[in-house]
Amino acid sequence: MRPQNFHDYRALARRKLPKGLFEYIDRGTENEIAIRALRESLDAIKITPCALTGHGARDFSTTLFGKRHALPLIIAPTALAGLVSHDGETKLARAAATAGIPFCVSTQSITAVEDIRAGAPGADIWFQLYMWRDRALTRSLLDRVWASGVTTLVVTADTPTGPNREYNARNGFGMPMKPSIRVGLDMALHPGWLFGVILAYMRTTGMPTYGHYPAEHRVAITGAPSGEAVQLEHRLNWDDLVALRREWRGEIVIKGLLSVADALKAANLGADSVVVSTHGGRNLDSAPTTARILPDIAEAVGEKVTVLADSGVQRGSDVLKYIGLGAKAVLAGRLPLWGLAAGGEAGADAILAMLKREMDLTMTMLGLERPSEVAPHIVR
């Protein structure tokens, strides 16, 4: 039977992916309070319908940075998406293009942005940046990104260090992936993934690597990127944003803000957009939820910058709730990955189409023609 919702796709992904990889995507951090709070915060929001206000069709389009998109949705950057399906990042980029939305590729993707561009020439590709300690290498990476036709840079601001994900240690899965008997058995119990992903890479490009790292620092996913130069910069600060603003010719999005003060500072220092985000509940277990903070940030900076939101999205109604709280568009990370795991590119297409159907149904029930009309109907 065709999967009907987020939970169906997640269950399919759980069966198809090794446990370590599935939990790496699915779970939170420490006691996983933050990831539970995300769901609870979205479920607590109600939307009041407006009766006898039917429309012939709904208009989901939105404009971000001068480009019109079919939906107020962006595929969020996710590390190692290319392990979910062979050439997974390119498949996601093509699915995004089919849906008429942007795709944001991660610094820690398997496939390099140049190859994603070649495989998905019609996609609106954004690039997520983890700053390396060697700024010259970071600038060289950004030159590659710009040359690939990317104009929107998403700077992750909420990961100064690796989070405490104890289940990764137990599973032997992380960055890097640690070879062990447990990991080998986990892979062997999922032969479809082993042959369809890992061995597919081995037959073509070799053991998967981090595609954006310089050749002299690039290693297989079973090893940590070598050298201090390409370690993630834990001292990232506002001066780095000023320098990026001076050097990057396109839009700069700061992802992972949860305070009005930080949003104001980002706007004042030249950011074009901020993403209110808890990193999907994966980083700081005591962080406030996106739904709690989003209205305050939207009120403070919504006239200056484009406010986006993410974390915890499972339904089209969740997208509308974040828009009703002040976001111009919403990023989704786990959802597209579950579609990709369940059915490759066709699965990613299907889960994005599902989100649109759910948005359409919710808006029809509410009597709304456009997502931007939902704000007065939000009950907090």
Give structural attributes.
flavoprotein, 14 helices, 380 residues, Aldolase_TIM, 12% strand, TIM Barrel, 8-stranded parallel β-sheet, alpha/beta, two-stranded antiparallel ribbon
**Whole-number average pLDDT?**
94
Q: Structural class of the helix and strand makeup?
A: alpha/beta
User: How many extended strands?
Assistant: 12
Order of helices and strands: HHHEEEEHEHEHEHHHHEHEHEHEHE
Which fold does the CATH topology refer to? TIM Barrel
> What is the count of structural domains?
1
CATH class: Alpha Beta
Number of discrete helical segments: 14
- Biggest β-sheet, characterized? 8 strands, parallel
Name the CATH superfamily classification: Aldolase class I
Strand content: 5-15%
* Strand neighbour order, sheet with most strands: 4-11-10-9-8-7-6-5
Q: Which stretches are poorly predicted, pLDDT < 50 over at least 5 residues?
A: none
> Residue share in helices?
40-55%
CATH architecture: Alpha-Beta Barrel
How big is the Rg? 20 Å
- Measured distance between first and last alpha carbons: 37 Å
Shape: globular
Provide an overview of this structure.
The active site is at 279 (proton acceptor). Belongs to the FMN-dependent alpha-hydroxy acid dehydrogenase family. Keywords: Flavoprotein, FMN, Oxidoreductase. Its cofactor is FMN. Glyoxylate binds at residues 24, 165, 279, 282. With 380 residues, the chain is an alpha/beta fold. The protein has a single domain (6-379), classed as Aldolase class I (TIM Barrel), CATH 3.20.20. The protein contains 14 helices and 12 strands. It has an 8-stranded parallel β-sheet with strand order 4-11-10-9-8-7-6-5. Strands 1-12 form a two-stranded antiparallel ribbon. Helix 4 packs across helix 5 (113-119) and helix 4 (88-99) packs parallel to helix 14 (334-366). The longest helix has 33 residues, at 334-366. It starts with 5 loop residues before the first helix and ends with a strand. The model has no long low-confidence stretch (mean pLDDT 94).
